[in-house]
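Anyone else keep sequences and structure tokens together like this?

Example one:
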Amino acid sequence: MTLFAALTAKEGDANGGTSSTSSPPEVIQLHSNRVIDFLSGTTVHLLKKSSKSSGEESNKEESGANNKTTNTIEGQSRYFSALSYQAIQTQQDDGPLPNKSAGGGAAAAVGLRHLRPDLGVWDCRVNENKEEASAMLLKRVVLGTKKQQLKEDSGEEKKGEETEAAGEKDEAIGVAPPIVMTVDLSNPADVQPVVERMRSVILEVYDSDEKASSNKNPQVQCSTSIKALQSSTFGKTLIQEEVTVKGGSTSNDEKIALILAVIVPSAINTTAPSSAAEEYKERQARALLLYHLHKFSLEVDCTLCFVSGSGSPDIPSGGVEAEAKEAETASAENDPLLGRNTTMSIDELGKVIRRVAMGLSPVEQSDNAGENEEAKEDSKGEDDNGSPSQRPPSIHVPGSHDAELIHGAYLRNASCEGRWDASKDDLNVALP
């Protein structure tokens, strides 16, 4: 029985009504030193416990102005946490959301926004050289609990064909929850090792001797095959020739739902580059990361999302705070490290994740079709640097990754003259 089911049963007993064992869908968020806190609508940098002054200084050095959206106390308290849980409400009621200026503080506002959770998020921190430990924790705590729930819900109470049909449905949604790989772009050199550690954890979970249940008859959202994930090392220059057709693999390999959530910092350290050459190098490092993120998403056919690392949606409209936020956003969009991608809010990402966890497409089909058409039109023109002339969308769903655009414009724009050649140098060589 999952945590949600236990809470629902307690509420039923307290109210004198019947309890329910049904529980909202759940997902796994793999992260390194920065985690998406859906409860507060921010990102949290996991700091080592230290004095207040040293903690603030460390945060300032590592994430620059982005520490405005980081809860330092929360980061310190969760530094040693290997697995945690968020019960969030993605579908909000009609009417404005509460904010901390309405009285009661930020904690009260967050509590009011998540009164009726409809999504559970398991946060699993992946540390260096701890991939096997993280995989074992997920198999025993998260996936093991879901297998037990499946037995309780469908193993004894349902008979015949109803049992089989219900079991397949529960397995697709409950036993193999979608996996969100949270990647922070604050330090470009950290991206490649972080993604590789997360990939190793997933393979350890689904490719061990005692395999966890994945989806052999995947629904719409299960598009990433374990076989493709095995052969797709992040940051390699090798182009897989077979990955050329949109829509991904059609094999009967075991598949999972994978979401690559890329945190785009709200602001970068405002210290001006020492020279024009350094500014050019920073801009090209950003372009190189974008190329490899798109290339990896194409190869494994996953959902790619660009998420804003900016502040909480609790900030009220109007006033000094809103003006400051707008100025920061405008500055960020012009920053050479932030590039051209539009971003979605953390609340919007929560809605996308819940749709995938429910077995649906990441976005409404009509929205997806319109977005793809816009992306096609945008890709027809290129600016002087050879990159797409318009800002790409904030989400790229499975089957929409354009191999021609990725291995064309994105690759041509990813090299840095005198530093690296994107077509020859792997990411860990270009950004050591």
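And example two:
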Amino acid sequence: WVCAFSVNQHISICNSNPYDWDPVFKRFHPTCNCSVDKIDDPDGRAAESEINKFDDMMKHLAATGRCKHLIAVDKSMDLFN
């Protein structure tokens, strides 16, 4: 299970960010107006949402004894830029 490549976060977050404040620029992060069908998941329980499954997957992997959690970042941190 590879979260970074299999989870479409965009469909849940691109058109709204009521709490996504940028502390550096002192403003809300911009939203997009793409035509992708959005998933509204205010309580994190929508079955069709892909971003609310992380905790369940980590619990499952830990229970099977094969839990490995790797975070890879490039040396210059461009991934987060």
